Amino acid sequence: MDQASHTVKAESRNLNFYYSNGAHALKGIHMPLYENKITALIGPSGCGKSTFLRCFNRMHDLYPGNRYDGQIVMHPDNTNILADGVDPIEVRMRISMVFQKPNPFPKSIYENVAYGLRVRGGKNKKVIDDKVEQALRGAALWDEVKDRLDDLAFNLSGGQQQRLCIARALATDPEIMLFDEPTSALDPIATASIEELMTELRNKLTILVVTHNMQQAARVSDYTAYMYLGDLVEFSKTDDIFIKPKDKRTEDYITGRIG
Amino acid sequence: MLTMDKQNLIPASSAKASGMDDLQEVRAMIRRHKRKDILFASIGLLALMFALLTLLTLFIDLVMDGYQRFNMEFLSEFPSRRAAHAGLLSAWVGSLLVMLVTFLAAVPMGVAAGLYLEEYAPKNWFSDLIEINVTNLAGVPSIVYGLLALGLFVYGLGFGQSILTAGLTLGLLILPIIIVSTREAIRAIPAAIREAAYAVGATKWQVVKDHVLKYSQGGILTGVIIGMARALGETAPIITIGALTFIAFLPPSPIGTEAPFINFEWLSSGFTVLPIQMFNWLSRPDHAFHINAAATGAIIILVTLLMNGTAIWLRYKIRKNIKW
């Protein structure tokens, strides 16, 4: 792992999150996201890792009653993306997301990828064509679908659908890409291709990935954060956290004693 | 019955020797359970057949009574004092025009209301109250709508006993059906699809227009057609607002031969509709008119079935490409 670049792309500062039912799901989280690195969030079910991830694109705003407290600051512009004055739509234009289960729109392959561009007012067919091709290439899907861009996305296999969702998230040139357990619905071969893709994407953007699979975290990530019951227990370089965890709770989880 | 005293069923390892007995017992048990399956399936089938056969009997009865009037003349003649020459022309044209008004009034309003309730309205006690009321409206007897329309459209707004009044009345009547089916169709769209759209930066309206409306159109269309089929057969509210029962003229044509080619005089015209014409013929003492009534009844059922069939076909066709 190269030590050269350690620019902070975004950081959460004392982030607390409350669900509408009052549950205190995140408790004072401080964590940096390093630019062009993959940061993995691990921890047992219900520890708040997905909740944390979904703060980054303000997904929680879609459901009434949820409340953030604290900051997530994006660099270099120093924008607190959780601030009241910041429109969640602006945040989602900068930070895109890939979900747990492949969720393509019931539209053509082409339209799935183009949707983010259309939302941004893209009209020029040539420009959109180019961007769609670029995104599909970026998601390592172009060769498989270039002859059937008008086919329904549902006709693709699960792994292809997930790569299509990555292409959709990629088409709009995001600064950060969020992955919420992106391979939990996929077979091992499709999983391997998604992981390979993530390591390639790292060159272009910053990645935050939630995974319940510790081998996956160890394989793909540069940094790992272990969360437990809404707390960020430990954050450090992936190699360090897996080889010599500092916290007893991290060690217990990694060695399979809890979770 | 499966009882606990058959201990040897559970610990399979207890005695290898009794293995064959166990198998017999298991087979007997499965047979017993299967008998219940068959019993329930038979009861269900019987209930279904009862409903279908009733409808079929009614339909066949109407056709048997009215078949001699199934000809073009029946559709192209005005009502007449002579039963054999009386036709449905003014009734089916009236029904068509009333349905047109109903469609234009109820569909945009119902879809917009359903969309608002599902996508925009905050979820609180007030929207719950509205939801309960909308559902209840679907159960209000149609004659009550007739009374409402008499006061509101006929006298209050001065629309008179016109096609406009009838169309709006039936529109109100089927509004709850369209609202409820719109909401159900929208609710069937998985949250993951919405989130996917929001996640690429779409606004609420973009999500609604590009996704919610597109993927729910099958369900909405089904609700619309079923609502329209209901409106076609409604009689009570139309009587209340004063449809004419004997009409020997057509409303002015909506499409003119000279500019501007479209006129709205037909909206204020008097009218009759198919079920009213049927009711009128049925209430005459002369049996010859009853034949006309039966023929009309058969036609109404046929059109209703056709509309519902279309609804099912459309839903299938549109749903085919959507897998969730």
Could you state the order of secondary-structure elements of chain A as H and E?
Answer: EEEHEEHEHHHHEHEHEEHH
What is the fold-level CATH name, i.e. the topology of the largest domain in chain B?
A: MetI-like fold
Q: DSSP helix count of chain B?
A: 11
Q: Give the overall shape of chain A, derived from the CA principal axes.
A: globular
Order of helices and strands of chain B: HHHHHHHHHHH
Describe this structure in words.
The complex is a heterodimer of chains A (259) and B (324). In chain A, strand 7, helix 7 (188-201) and strand 8 form a beta-alpha-beta unit. Chain A is of the alpha/beta class and 259 residues long. Chain A has helices at 49-55, 88-94, 109-119, 125-138, 142-145, 158-170, 188-201, 214-220, 238-243, 248-254, and strands at 8-18, 24-34, 38-42, 67-74, 79-80, 95-98, 176-180, 206-210, 223-228, 231-237. The radius of gyration of chain A is 18 Å and the shape is globular. The model of chain A has no long low-confidence stretch (mean pLDDT 91). In chain A, 35% of the residues lie in helices and 25% in strands. In chain A, strands 6-7-8-3-9-10 form a six-stranded mixed beta sheet, sandwiched between helices. A four-stranded antiparallel beta sheet of chain A has the order 2-1-4-5, with helices on one face. The two termini of chain A are 28 Å apart. Chain B has 324 residues and is mostly helical. Chain B folds into two domains: 18-66; 70-321, MetI-like (MetI-like fold, Orthogonal Bundle), CATH 1.10.3720.10. Chain B is built from eleven helices and no strands. Chain B is globular.
